[in-house]
């Protein structure tokens, strides 16, 4: 063992010397590769110009499958699995809040070819929009009679729905009773001493 505590057979009496030219050459080589990579990425083509965001021209359907039961299997295609299916991005989102976040998000808008920037409106566009909205407002004057008619129409629609539900319930009940009735031979029933197995109530 060495006297000063160093391991035997190791030369540690001088500082390590670096070959500066070797490392300078490596640095130049790395810079050359980076420049070539930058040139290759630029030569792929001009950057994609995306359209600015625009107003959605369709109604988002969130309530069509509300309250319905569905058998979910792992081998079903994505469009038939539980949740909301986005046909643009081909993904399934589990609830309506996340679905709205998805269709308003960056990934979905990019798939539609839009950037997340809104087109800047000019003064003339804003003024023309206000004029258009004013005309719509004056074209359709609002009166209390219109309100009463709308309320009456809504009440009639609600009553019609309730009536249809009652009829459906009656039909189901009738079908159930018909299924439960067992046809009995009257001679056998008379021999046994009773008119039927069912109750007299209908």
Describe this structure in words.
This protein is mostly helical and 202 residues long. It is 49% helix and 7% strand. The protein has 6 helices and 4 strands. It has helices at residues 20-42, 96-103, 106-111, 123-139, 144-180, 186-192, and strands spanning 51-53, 84-86, 91-93, 114-118. The strands form 2 sheets. It has a two-stranded parallel sheet. A two-stranded antiparallel sheet has the order 2-3. Strand 2 and strand 3 (91-93) form a beta hairpin. The chain is flat, with a radius of gyration of 39 Å. The mean pLDDT is 81.
Strand order of the largest sheet: 1-4
Helix content: 40-55%
SSE pattern? HEEEHHEHHH
* Number of strand segments: 4
Rg is 39 Å
Assign an overall shape: flat
Poorly predicted regions are none
Q: What structural category characterises the helix and strand content?
A: mainly alpha
Percent in strands: 5-15%
Distance between the termini: 109 Å
Largest sheet: 2 strands, parallel
Average predicted confidence as pLDDT = 81
User: Total number of helical segments?
Assistant: 6
């Amino acid at each position: 063992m060495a006297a000063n505590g160093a391991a035997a057979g190791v030369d540690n009496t001088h500082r390590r010397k670096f070959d500066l030219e070797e490392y300078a050459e490596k640095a130049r080589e790395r810079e050359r590769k980076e420049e070539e990579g930058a040139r290759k990425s630029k030569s792929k083509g001009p950057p994609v110009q995306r359209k600015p965001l625009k107003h959605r021209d369709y109604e988002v359907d969130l309530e069509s499958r509300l309250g319905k039961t569905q058998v979910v299997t792992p081998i079903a295609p994505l469009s038939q699995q539980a949740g909301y299916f986005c046909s643009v991005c081909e993904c399934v989102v589990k609830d309506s809040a996340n679905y709205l976040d998805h269709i308003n998000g960056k990934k979905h808008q990019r798939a539609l070819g839009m950037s997340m920037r809104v087109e800047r409106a000019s003064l003339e566009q804003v003024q023309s929009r206000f004029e258009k909205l004013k005309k719509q407002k004056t074209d359709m004057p609002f009166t209390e009679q219109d309100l009463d008619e709308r309320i009456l129409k809504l009440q009639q629609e609600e009553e019609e729905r309730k009536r249809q539900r009652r009829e459906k319930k009656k039909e189901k009940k009738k079908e159930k009773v018909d299924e439960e009735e067992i046809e009995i031979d009257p001679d056998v029933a008379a021999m046994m001493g009773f008119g039927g197995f069912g109750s007299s109530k209908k």
